[in-house]
Amino acid sequence: MRTMGLLGGMSWESTAVYYRLMNQGVAARRGGLHSAPLRLASVDFAEVAALQRAGAWQQAGELLGRTGAGLRAAGAQALLIATNTMHKVADTVVRESGLPLLHIGDATGQALRAAGVRRAGLLGTRFTMEDGFLARHLNEGYGIEVAVPPEPDRAEVHRIIFDELCRGVQHDSSRAAFARIIGALAESGCDAVILGCTEISLLVDPAAPGWPVPLFDTTALHAQAAVDWMLQEETA
């Protein structure tokens, strides 16, 4: 198996989900006591979040890139950034780390295209919903039109992510807010909704019955792409 480097801690709540899903995926495919060959670096999210708020994206990208270079030195052969938001600086991370990146937008775009989705709603941090980097990746690479909620709903989604989910807090009222926002996106013409923050599936179960449109969990899709990559045979 090939060794994956996991840039985590943003937040550690969702990084724990990545770790579980990747190990479960390898065990399911290989059987027995097999588990995922990983190199994990968990950064201090408070430092990264402060750089996000300050708009210091170049500095944040260089921080993750240096961390990724450490994973390369420890034996990682590729990188996974365990957060949607920090894919905003994916190019910097690749350049600074010297490793190829399994992009969360590719895992998501491939699943959306395979399902025949043409227009998808996007939920995530304010940065992910408003800065356009993930929407462009999905549109240019996979032909997916991306829509986001109106500003008050974007603010509420962002608040729930940072004030609750990243801190291990889950409220029924927040679950209801997500259900309302997902319903509104469906009514606006979206034929799917992307859970475009790696913490959202801690609150919203994509497999639960009753959603008006299919929900695509970027965390699960990204972890599955990592399992596929780790189990590919290396070529000389």
Summarize the structure.
This protein has 236 residues and is α/β, with parallel strands linked by helices. It has helices at 12-30, 45-54, 57-73, 90-97, 104-114, 126-131, 133-142, 151-164, 172-187, 218-231; strands at 4-8, 38-42, 78-81, 119-123, 145-147, 192-195, 215-217. It has 2 domains: 4-103 and 221-231, Rossmann fold (3-Layer(aba) Sandwich); 105-218, Rossmann fold, CATH 3.40.50.1860.
Q: Tell me the structural class.
A: alpha/beta
Strand content: 5-15%
Number of spatially distinct domains: 2
Strand tally: 7
Percent of residues in helices comes to: 40-55%
**Can you tell me the CATH class of the largest domain?**
Alpha Beta
List the helices and strands in order. EHEHHEHHEHHEHHEEH
* Rg: 17 Å
Q: What is the name of the CATH topology of the largest domain?
A: Rossmann fold
CATH level-two architecture of the largest domain: 3-Layer(aba) Sandwich
Helix count equals 10
Question: What would you call the shape?
Answer: globular
Low-confidence stretches: none
Tell me, rounded to a whole number, the average pLDDT: 97
Task: Enumerate the strands of the largest sheet in spatial order, edge to edge or round the barrel.
Answer: 5-4-6-7
Specify the biggest β-sheet.
4 strands, parallel
List keywords for this structure.
Rossmann fold, four-stranded parallel beta sheet, three-stranded parallel beta sheet, 7 strands, 53% helix, globular, isomerase, amino-acid racemase activity, Aspartate/glutamate racemase family protein
